[in-house]
Write a structure and sequence with these properties.
alpha+beta; Arc Repressor Mutant, subunit A; 5 strands; globular; binds zinc ion
Amino acid sequence: MSHSRDTDAFSPHDHRRCIRTAIAEAERICLEHNSRLTPQRQAVLELIWSSHKPVGAYALLEQLRELGHNGQPPTVYRALDFLLQHGLIHRIESLNAYTGCRHPGEHHTGQFLICSQCQQVAELDDPSLGSRIEDSAARHGFVADSQVIEIRGTCPQCQQQDSHEPR
Ligand SMILES: [Zn+2]
Ligand SMILES: [Zn+2]
Ligand SMILES: [Zn+2]
């Protein structure tokens, strides 16, 4: 596993590769779990992966309808549940939106860098952060089941744009 892919969202890259990898990984994971990546589920996953900007459920509904899929809320929520359960996407609580997981199938805690300007999200995967939180929680006698860390800031691209703006 190379370390650089963690910051891919914030550096210029061929995003079609992200989408292709995500779909291939999803197919592999579904096969492993004996579940099916139905056209509806795949469409939702592709829409979420259309960029590194998390997508909300309502936007997904509209885009699905435009594509001629069943855009009924229960269908979309079921597809989202499926993708969440299989670790293919994450929910960004503070944005009430979904983003594709870059390490599907690997057990990991969710640590996200969220750019306040372009809303793009990059996933950190630092197991040491997760275990330090578990240790701290344990010192309070608390058993942590899940943890999501959402870190706000400015991505490298937006920082560059800022510095180019006339003052
Ligand atoms: Zn990408
Ligand atoms: Zn992930
Ligand atoms: Zn940004």
